[in-house]
Amino acid sequence: MPRILVLHGPNLNTLGKREPEHYGSETLEDVNKRLVEKGRKWGCQVDTFQSNIEGELINQIHSSVDTYDAIIINPGAYTHYSYAIFDAIGAISVPVIEVHISNIHTREPFRHTSVIAPACKGQIVGFGTKSYDLALLAVREWLEGE
Ligand code: CA2
To answer: How many angstroms separate the alpha carbon of residue 77 from the centre of ligand 1?
Structure first.
């Protein structure tokens, strides 16, 4: 059974509680429950993890080797400047899909750059919390086609 790790970066624990115009009204718990359930229906195990701490996300990326078949990550604002997360992703062979709830390319200029993207298999942005579902679908299709 494929195993997929979903990582959420800083401030995403407050999803659904602030800035609904950018991030919608669903909570992170709602999103996680839906992804786990979709994974179960599709025959894969989905585990989720959120941290506001860069090093904890990096530790999860390191320990995904030999445990997970793919990672879906929303690195939050670390997207725009964390070369440490870029290096961690670049050092593993597990495919990583970068996800954003909002369309980072239509927002403030500092959000237009992802320093993580060159280390990732692909990027899905701008579909609200459904960006995660689309990433799960992409992972599934990609793993099945391998
Ligand atoms: O659109 C995304 O998914 C982001 O990764 C969200 C990050 C932001 O820094 C990125 O540029 C784009 C921010 C996460 C903050 O999460 C909040 C959730 C609810 C209310 C306020 C912030």
So the answer is: 7
What is the tally of structural domains in the chain? 1
Q: Which residues are catalytic?
A: 23, 100
Task: Residue 7: give the domain boundaries.
Answer: 3-144
Domain CATH code at residue 79 = 3.40.50.9100
What's the sign of the alpha-carbon dihedral 124, 40, 12, 93? Answer: negative
Quote the pTM value: 0.96
Per-residue pLDDT of the chain (146 residues; tens, 9 = 90+): 999 999 999 999 999 988 888 888 899 999 999 999 999 999 999 999 999 999 999 999 999 999 999 999 999 999 999 999 999 999 999 999 999 999 999 999 999 999 999 999 999 999 999 999 999 999 999 998 87
Q: How wide is the angle at C-alpha 76 spanned by C-alphas 134 and 15, nearest 5°?
A: 75
Contact 133, 35 (CB under 8 A): yes
Atom nearest to 103 CA in ligand 1:
1
